[in-house]
Amino acid sequence: VAVSQIARELGHGIADDHPGDAIPAYLMVFFAIWWAWMNFTWFASAYDTDDVPYRLLTLVQMGGVLVLAAGVPGAFERRDFTAVTLGYVVMRVAMLAQWSRAARADLERRTTALRYVAGTALVQAGWLLRLALPDSWATWSFLVLVVAELLVPVWAERGSTATWHPHHIAERYGLFTIIVLGECVLAATTAVQVAVSEGGVSADLLVVAFGGLVLIFALWWLYFLRPAGVGLERRPELSFFWGYGHYGIFAGLAALGAGLEVTTEALTHHLEASDTLVAGAVAVPVAVVVLLVWALHAPLGTAPRSDAVFFLGAVVALLAVPALVAAGLGLPIAVALLALPVAALVVVGIRHDGGS
């Protein structure tokens, strides 16, 4: 629900030709969703007790993310992050309770758990205090608190790390990838439904629909082409790099949904945004995802480092498409062209795996 809300608002901002306002708000709110989800995921891999208090605290987190989702329109339209912040803090306070339980039950890692409690509590106080700061401090205070959030696990796990299962973590990340890919499909489907009801089926609409489907399918195939669990088992010291790097993959995939929705809307409505900006709203997120998929897999040994030339070539090809649109290429053909480099990477990966 929360991902759907922010993707929709991002699409509205792009369509209205206000990317400079919409993109920062999108990245900020997506961080809150991703970070709360990620902390719960890694905790669950270490302490999945699944008892009554555990499930009740999960309910609290669900309530928190729904409060966050309810505050998304205000964050984008009025830069009012009050509801988003409160919903986020509710989720993080639930994790405080979870780590407190772990500290009492796991004496071997008690110090690690208590560091999580102390660090998380301190940063949540910072988020609440941020609401009282002047608007001119909003961006800098946000960046400072993001750095603080990212450093809490690094500090907490110095000397004694929490246990985690590499294949479970890879599965959880894979499921979140499917969720955001599903958001792409939902956004594109909704846009196509509106376009059909208002203007009927056209050749341009069919090209965009088919091109978007192939693009999403190729990204799904590319992400799951390599077994991340095997790599994490082999190189557990890269877990922070791999886990944190997925922010760009998840945010990029969700933004792709917004870009496809705006592209479809442009076929039947006059938008304030130029066709070049609309094409960029699809090309840039895809380029980010493609680059990060290789960058996160290569150090794990699950993707050949020699593939860098193919991935970089694909990124260049993807980013060249908006320039072609600026030169006169139509949006429907642009979407179809964007699917080709990603599909080519899938073919390269299959060939390296011996055709399996």
String of helices and strands: HHHHHHHHHHHHHH
Q: How many H/I helices?
A: 14
Strand fraction: under 5%
Structural class from helices and strands? mainly alpha
Q: Name the average pLDDT.
A: 92
Number of DSSP E strands: 0
Overall 3D shape: globular
Poorly predicted runs of 5 or more residues = none
Measure the end-to-end span. 36 Å
Instruction: Return Rg in Å.
Output: 21 Å
Please describe the biggest sheet, giving its number of strands, its sense, and whether it closes into a barrel.
Answer: none
Helix content: over 70%
Protein described:
By secondary structure, the chain is mainly α. The chain is 81% helix and 0% strand. The chain contains 14 helices and no strands. Helix 1 (2-15) runs parallel beside helix 3 and helix 13 runs antiparallel to helix 14 (331-352). The chain is globular, with a radius of gyration of 21 Å. It starts with a helix and ends with a helix.
Features:
356 residues, mainly alpha, 14 helices
Explain the layout of strands and helices.
Layout: H1 2-15, H2 19-46, H3 52-70, H4 72-77, H5 82-105, H6 110-130, H7 138-156, H8 166-199, H9 203-223, H10 228-234, H11 239-268, H12 275-297, H13 308-326, H14 331-352
